[in-house]
Write a structure and sequence with these properties.
CATH superfamily of the largest domain: Dihydrodipicolinate Reductase, domain 2
CATH architecture of the largest domain: 2-Layer Sandwich
Number of domains: 4
Oligomer: single chain
EC number: 2.7.2.4, 1.1.1.3
Number of helices: 32
Distance between the termini: 55 Å
Number of strands: 28
GO biological process, one term: methionine biosynthetic process
Bound molecules: NADPH dihydro-nicotinamide-adenine-dinucleotide phosphate, the ligand N[C@@H](CC=O)C(=O)O
CATH topology of the largest domain: Dihydrodipicolinate Reductase, domain 2
Keywords: Amino-acid biosynthesis, ATP-binding, Kinase, Lysine biosynthesis, Metal-binding, Methionine biosynthesis, Multifunctional enzyme, NAD, NADP, Nucleotide-binding, Oxidoreductase, Sodium, Threonine biosynthesis, Transferase
Strand order of the largest sheet: 3-4-2-1-7-9-10-8
Radius of gyration: 37 Å
Low-confidence stretches: none
Helix content: 40-55%
Shape: elongated
Largest sheet: 8 strands, mixed
Structural class: alpha/beta
GO molecular function, one term: homoserine dehydrogenase activity
Cofactor: a metal cation
Amino acid sequence: MKVLKFGGSSLADYGCLQRVRELILTQGSNEALVVLSAPGGVTDKLVELCELARQGQAYEAQWQALTERLNALKSQVEAEFGEAAHWPDLAALADKLAGVKLLRQCPDAVQAYVISFGERVSVALMVAMLGKDKAHYLDATACIATNDAYLDAEALLDESRARFSAQLQAHRAQFYIMPGFTGSNSAGELTTLGRNGSDYSAAIAAACIQAEVCQIWTDVDGVYSADPRLIKKATKVNRLSYKEAMELSYFGAKVLHPKTILPCAKTGVPCEIKNTHAPELPGSVIAAQGGGDEPVKALSSLDKLAMLTVSGPGMKGKVGMAARVFSALAKDNVSIVLITQSSCEFSISFCVHEQDLPLALQALQSAFELEMQAQLIEPIEVRRSLAIVTLVGDNMKSHKGLAAKFFASLAQAQVNIVAIAQDSTESAISAVIQGELCQDAVKVCHENFFTHVPSIDVFLLGCGLVGTELVAQLQRQQSWLAERNIKLNLYGVANSKHCYLNEQGVPFERWQEALADASEGFKLTDLEAFVRRNHLINPVIVDCSSSQQLADQYRDFLAAGFHVVAANKKANTSDYDYYQALKQVAQQKGRRFLYETNVGAGLPVLDNLQLLFGAGDELLSFSGILSGSLSYIFGELEDGLSLSEATAKAKQSGFTEPDPRDDLSGTDVARKLLIIARESGLALELSDIEVEPVVPEDFAAGSSVDEFMARLHEQDGAFADRIQSAASEGKVLRYVASIADDRCRVGIEAVERTHALSDIRDGENALAILSQYYQPKPFVIRGYGAGAEVTAAGVFADILKTLTR
Ligand SMILES: NC(=O)C1=CN([C@@H]2O[C@H](COP(=O)(O)OP(=O)(O)OC[C@H]3O[C@@H](n4cnc5c(N)ncnc54)[C@H](OP(=O)(O)O)[C@@H]3O)[C@@H](O)[C@H]2O)C=CC1
Ligand SMILES: N[C@@H](CC=O)C(=O)O
């Protein structure tokens, strides 16, 4: 025989009742024992009425409304099925409430009687709907034997088994319909099994009759990998072990009452969670073997907790202290959710439900009064508003690194861990955290443990030449990314005046219009709020501006939990302390600071240097052409173009800096050389680089970019002479950067036509690195070192690197 249990949400109105009737009838000619909760909301209302009556307040109007609701259901059922419902005695219930109001007292036994009324109503209605020839009203008080706790009774399985057997034999029927939530003590008085105790009733029944299955019908598809109200991407878990289900329900999973599993586990009856509204879907099966290879099945969270710490010199090495702590709490019926003890035995910490905190404190203070007076025990420390996040999975024991991943995920969510606990079977690992961060913690942990598509959440600052090309590449590469199982979201774009953020992602087709319409400029606090609101776990700020003001904020970006990807060279060429600080804060925060495009645009220059020098190599000397624009300009000069014409063409081709004076002054090359020097271990400042500008410093100063470009032809003559004179010696001019003998220099050099650098033009860069390992022939990198496309591609590659640590 099967046991089927239907919860309150499945019985809320007449339509629901009909659906349940049909589901029962799908059993065909098979017998079934059906356990029913009260119609949705009825038990809560009865509890409220009891409380109002106990306080001597008016409850009558609400009572009236409740009885009207229930009587309306009864009339509907009787009219439809022509069968009189075996209606519970509402008048007796009204008398009880009146008595409570008169006495201003509500003994537990009375309360149990009142609040269990709804279940009897459900059963009366369902028996009438199924017909008395088929269905029998199975009296739960005659079947479930419990202890004397009227409001949170424990079932006595052996005695209940005998009672069930007798009752089923005495009343033969196809369907036994039994009210959930109730039993009776040895005196025959009605007891209740704790809130939502109907699941427990069903499990007890299933265990007692050794049912083939205990089906819990509810309003969700089964047990989820996390609370689906919190986590949109939560998925149904098909199969769990009893242990996994117990851990989950104990630590907050709402779908099952914690006490439900034990009777099933004891007798090996499988338990199945199914959705009344989608009965065709397979539910979640809970059985002896959880099955599946996944190490973590689900995660749950429990909030509104407080942690108490008992500590002091009197604790250390003293036998029986823990026992005294816990028996003091047990005496007052305080349930302990989680316990941890310091390894030096100096303190014991444990969590209780916040509602139990006053009782727990009082119990401990009176138990340790003398020790406290003697200062052997310190005043009990209390931390309120805590939560527990728990990972559950039987297979965790055979996998390494899960705890590390769990704690790293909590760190990623910026959550501080207050305490941790793991049971010795390694089926559950729990962290106590601040309650207000519980949702963040669950979201990040779920993303890391269950979402197998890693995501990168990009905010692009600077949408000029490089930034615009980057957006185009992000759009173009979406399917390439999807094939590689990567979700790359562009959530924000900003220029110097506007910042556009969109929780659905920036629309690729009209991002420029959206940005132009945005009213506010970029503020880090807005991005932080956005990330928090949307629970993003891999946010990346991409700087494709040349703004010093943004570069100065990288430390804050990293500290706020963003990765930083920079095409902008200004942070790495700020003072050396800042350059160092950025690396440190990135390391501390577990975030990446990536800037491959700072030197050689898309060429893999800095990655290679970091690999070489990170593996113990040492730089001996360096020489190369580091400027795409100057490589282009000097090549064009060789072909007969003037300096002003060549510069205009370089600018048009996207090789120059936003302000071409940065190139012609040698500053941009000096920045790149400084970065190479720093990456090689030299603690230099920008002022340490000797710079020979292409055009005199005073010529470049004080005008706008347009004015400068308009006047540049004034330098054409002098430059033509220089080219001419080099040519007469069979040489060409190149803008060369070098590090040799602790001297860093950038400037114009006349090189033989046979020299390797004479060939470098058209925007190409070339770098020759002579090192301990690479000598006498240098390690050489060559390729296009400027231009929107290669630079954006380099930025793109850096963005992808944020997925790896
Ligand atoms: N071109 C190349 O080959 C390479 C370039 N780079 C680097 O890439 C960066 C971008 O170059 P490029 O695209 O040519 O520059 P652009 O001048 O074309 O674009 C710069 C962008 O940055 C924006 N911006 C400026 N200040 C801010 C701010 N405070 N907040 C947000 N956005 C801001 C500008 O906004 P607005 O339009 O409102 O002024 C503009 O959108 C530079 O640092 C450059 O050195 C690196 C390697 C190679
Ligand atoms: N303006 C720069 C662009 C890359 O950093 C150059 O000319 O190389």
